[in-house]
Design brief:
Radius of gyration: 18 Å
Number of strands: 8
Order of helices and strands: EEEEHEHEHEHEH
Shape: globular
Helix content: 25-40%
Strand content: 15-25%
């Protein structure tokens, strides 16, 4: 039987990505053919209000979008606008501007560089200095951008990332909330491994494939409002 692969527009507008082997066969509806997902439930402390008793909080936004002015990046900017309005000291790092080496065996005991042009330690130090970290990435192949995942890997063994508050921002062209949840799951998989993290909130912009589509959406206001909660 010919199997027709369905496609989901996930991530960059105009880029069609296979939905991991889904078919339009009638047999795909049978429970016996469905993959049982026994994903862990990450228990991370959540708080609607800040747990950091500082008048001027340092906020670091990690924008992992591969395109400046893309939907995820625009949402980051709106979050920043709201955070600054309530007195936050905000810095945005656009990861594509940096050279981040993959995790190697030599990094097991230190995040220090092993090549001269590696900038991961600079970013990790900024993360350590921040009170609040915003993790942002569009969805690609049901996961986060590889640049951000590489940075997360490079944080292995680093002792200065405890006690941070975290926000999450993601966008995808697919209109299913479950697709956006794949990025949230990846964010949480990193955060749960850190000492005493607190999750503060998130924006999941679904159905936003075309570059700049979020400009005409409620998600911009959501990101701005979320930034004001720091």
């Amino acid at each position: 039987m010919n199997r027709i692969i369905s496609f989901l527009a996930i991530g960059i507008g105009g880029l069609l990505i296979s939905s991991c082997g889904k078919t339009n066969d009638s047999t795909s509806d049978n429970a016996s053919n469905k993959v049982q997902q026994n994903l862990p439930v990450y228990e991370i402390t959540q708080s609607a209000t800040s747990t950091i008793n500082k008048e001027k909080k340092k906020v670091l936004v990690l924008s992992a979008s591969p395109r400046k002015g893309g939907n995820t990046d625009l949402l980051c900017d709106e979050f920043i606008k709201g955070a600054k309005e309530v007195g936050g000291e905000v810095e945005k790092i656009f990861l594509d501007d940096y050279k981040i080496d993959f995790f190697h065996e030599q990094h097991e005991h230190s995040a220090d560089s092993i090549s001269s042009d590696d900038q991961a330690p600079l970013i990790i130090k900024e993360m350590a200095d921040a009170d609040i970290i915003v993790l942002s990435s569009p969805v690609y192949y049901m996961n986060i951008d590889g640049q951000l995942k590489t940075l997360m890997d490079r944080c292995f063994g680093y002792d200065g990332l405890g006690g941070k508050e975290f926000y999450y921002i993601t966008a995808c062209a697919d209109a299913e909330d479950s697709t956006a949840e794949t990025a949230i799951f990846a964010f949480r998989g990193f955060v749960v491994c850190l000492p005493n993290p607190v999750e503060r909130g998130m924006v999941k912009a679904i159905g936003m494939g075309r570059k700049g589509a979020v400009k005409q959406s409620q998600y911009m206001q959501d990101a701005y409002n979320l930034g004001k909660t720091i």
